[in-house]
Structure formats: structure tokens, C-alpha cells
Design brief:
alpha/beta; five-stranded mixed sheet; about 20% strand; globular; binds adenosine-5'-diphosphate; binds zinc ion
Length: about 325
């Protein structure tokens, strides 16, 4: 970095892995943004949590965090952004790297990639939060050694990240598996809560769908409530479709709803019945290995995923 007088200054942050390039990582979520300065590989040197408000205030807080480092001569070699979506990921589109249409007030059309590119003057990679989390699970979590795998989160919404050969399926667009149409449970006449589709997967099986159907928060329903059979059925239907479409070696299922004791097992049982043994490879017979919980909670997988996205953009530049 050059000072105004033109003298070269390099800020040294002491760490055992100093030779690895610096990455600015941003996990952009509906409730919080985590901004971090990290080494390639994931060692976090500094990070901050910013409450998500309107875009201008939120992004100006993000800018302040990175500017503090930039003004001290610490320049990231790349930026990785793991964001809530839907995102425009079409590199040929002038709106590449922006948020498409979201019910979050003010956020539709926000040019996330351009903002951080202008701020850091470095190449930027952007992907969905779930795709980024999938990359993190591959590097140090439950998908190590997998060539093709899926990462699903079941919380306020349902999102799925898909990785094949080390790359997320994200170009020119990322999937919207959470909004897929799935068969109804024979005893379910709930219309669904998705504001676009009503009874898509998210409309039937997200946390808010459970709360709306049963009149109380998913967190408060007892373990023996019929809600969990419905939930297992819908998540099994999603897994069934992912399996027949992508043949993943693993489907990691996390998110707030999956905290429920026994739910993952119920999904495995429902899935086994639903697939009826059709066309299953040897590894797909063992559902305890195929359908697994996430391994990562700390460090937050989205943030590590953002670092890995930054690494990928560096690799493509070499
Ligand atoms: P977000 O998708 O906003 O990141 P989370 O992944 O934390 O949110 O998921 C929040 C959802 O998880 C809420 O709908 C909540 O009701 C549900 N939830 C929290 N605890 C439990 C539990 N023990 N059993 C089932 N659902 C739960
Ligand atoms: Zn939908």
C-alpha cells in the first residue's frame, strides 16, 4: 500500500500463516451481517457483527469496518460474499452480484458486489449463503471428500446449496430448491405460507409454515406432535428429488427446525419409504451416511464459505 507521500508501507498482522493472502469476507444475512478479515484457509484476524437494517446504514457500517484496515495499509487480495438471496449471479449481466427481489424492505436491487469491489479495490466472488455454507462443510465439515453433495437449511425459509467437483451450482443462476413443488401429505389441507407460491416446499415446511399450520411456534410443539410426521414427509420429498436429480453423496440438513430431536431420523424413515428402493446405489442404501446434520456451527459456515469464495476468485486469476 502507498501512503500519500508515496512511501510503501505494509501492515504486518502477526500470525503463523502470514504468507497466505488476505480475504475480506462478508456473510450477509437477513438479521445480521458478519464482516471479517481472514487469511486464505479461514483464519479470522478481525471480525464484526452488524445488525441488518436498511441497506444504506448496514453497508456504511460494513464499509467502516474494512476502511479501518484499509487506512492502516491492510489490503485484502480478494473479497468473498455469502449472501441471502435471490441473487443475480449471471456474470454477463450488468446487474451481476445484486440482490434480485426480496420482501426485505429496500434490499431489492442492492448492488452488493459492486459496493464491496469499489470499497476494497479487489476481485470479488459472490454466492448464496447456502452455497457458501456448503463449501465450508466440504472444506472442514460433513462433506469432506464428497464430489457431489447438497446442503439444506430449514429455518425461516428453506434453502439448498449444491456443490459438484468443488464448485457450487450458481452460474448463471443459483437454484431455488426451497420453492420446488412437492407432493402434499395425504392428510394436509394447509394452504401454505409462501407469498409467491402458497404451498411450495418452503410454504409447507419452513418454521413459519409449521407455526401457522399448528398455531404455535415450531420450537414449542411437543416431540410427539403430528407436526413432525408432516415435516419429515416434506423434507423427505425434497431429499428424494435432490437424490434423483443430482445423486449427491451426502445431503446435509441443518437450520433451526432441525434442532428438533429425532426429526432427522424421521426424515430418513420417510425417505426410505418414499423412494421404495428404486435405483439406489450402494452408498444410497445407508441413509445414516447419506442424510446427515451439519458439522459446522462455529466457525459460522457462511463466513468460512465467504473466505473460500474469495480463495476461488484468486485461483481463477492466476
Ligand atoms: P433463520 O432461517 O432465520 O436463520 P433459523 O435457522 O434459526 O432461522 O430457524 C428458525 C426457525 O427454527 C424458527 O421458525 C423456529 O420456530 C424454529 N425452531 C427453533 N427451535 C426449534 C426446535 N427446538 N424445534 C423445531 N423448530 C425450532
Ligand atoms: Zn415458494
Amino acid at each position: 500500500a502507498k501512503t500519500r507521500s508515496g512511501r510503501l508501507v505494509t501492515k504486518v498482522i502477526h500470525s503463523p500463516t502470514d504468507s497466505k493472502p488476505l480475504i475480506a469476507a462478508i456473510e450477509a444475512g437477513g438479521t445480521k451481517f458478519i464482516c471479517a478479515l481472514a487469511r486464505a484457509g479461514g483464519e479470522v484476524l478481525d471480525q464484526t457483527r452488524i445488525e441488518t437494517r436498511d441497506p444504506a446504514s448496514t453497508l456504511s457500517d460494513c464499509a467502516a469496518f474494512f476502511q479501518k484496515h484499509l487506512s492502516e495499509g491492510v489490503h485484502p487480495a480478494a473479497v468473498g460474499i455469502a449472501s441471502f438471496g435471490p441473487l443475480n449471479l449471471d456474470t454477463k449481466d450488468k446487474a451481476f452480484g445484486s440482490i434480485i427481489s426480496t420482501p426485505k424492505p429496500g434490499w431489492s436491487g442492492v448492488q452488493l458486489l459492486r459496493f464491496f469491489a469499489d470499497l476494497c479495490h479487489a476481485p470479488v466472488a459472490i454466492d448464496t449463503d447456502v452455497n457458501a455454507a456448503a463449501l465450508a462443510e466440504e472444506r472442514i465439515g460433513a462433506a469432506q471428500g464428497c464430489d457431489t453433495f447438497c446442503y439444506m437449511t430449514v429455518g425461516t425459509g428453506i434453502g439448498v446449496g449444491i456443490v459438484q467437483a468443488g464448485r457450487t451450482l450458481s452460474s448463471p443462476s443459483h437454484g431455488e430448491v426451497g420453492h420446488m413443488r412437492i407432493p402434499r401429505h395425504p392428510d394436509d389441507d394447509f394452504p401454505g405460507v409462501c407469498s409467491y407460491h402458497g404451498d411450495c416446499a418452503e410454504g409447507l415446511a419452513s418454521g413459519p409454515a409449521i407455526a401457522e399450520r399448528w398455531g404455535t411456534s415450531a420450537a414449542h410443539l411437543p416431540d410427539d406432535h403430528p407436526a413432525w410426521a408432516f415435516e419429515a414427509y416434506y423434507l423427505a420429498a425434497l431429499c428424494n428429488n435432490l437424490i434423483y436429480m443430482f445423486r449427491p453423496e451426502r445431503i446435509i440438513i441443518g437450520g433451526g427446525v432441525m434442532i428438533r430431536e429425532g426429526l432427522l431420523d424421521k426424515v430418513r424413515v420417510a425417505l426410505k419409504e418414499m423412494m421404495a428402493g428404486y435405483a439406489l446405489s450402494a452408498y444410497e442404501q445407508d441413509l445414516s451416511r447419506l442424510i446427515v446434520p451439519p458439522a459446522l456451527d462455529i466457525p459460522p459456515p457462511g463466513l468460512l464459505g465467504a473466505v473460500l469464495l474469495g480463495e476461488q476468485v484468486l485461483e481463477t486469476q492466476i
